[in-house]
Automatic annotation (TrEMBL):
It comes from Anopheles atroparvus. One of its GO terms (cellular component) is neuronal cell body. GO terms for molecular function: axon guidance receptor activity. Transmembrane segments: none annotated. Gene3D superfamilies: Immunoglobulins. GO terms for biological process: homophilic cell adhesion via plasma membrane adhesion molecules; synapse organization. SUPFAM superfamilies: Immunoglobulin (SSF48726). This is Ig-like domain-containing protein. SMART domains: IG, IGc2. It holds the Pfam family Ig_3.
Amino acid sequence: MEHPKITEHPLDVIVPRHEPATLNCKAEGVPTPTVTWFKDGEPIKAEQGSHKILLPAGGLFFLKVVHSRRESDAGVYWCEATNELGVARSHNATLQVSGRYWCMQ
């Protein structure tokens, strides 16, 4: 038995709108920990048909980064690795979406 430990933390990233992006998270522990992602404090549910996919190794993949009035992927993300011995939390990573409105400055 081994407490979960984050071995790769997500990093800050700036992504052009509608481009793919990956936030990495790798964890170790015995039993193998379950990785859960959070955005701005809320757990992320990667539903079927969503543009966000939880990768088997623990990363979070965006098919295309969304940034609109209705929905935006920009925010602060972190992952948590959980097994029956406890929880390990990664560092925070900020995802910023670059778009036309930045280029006009």
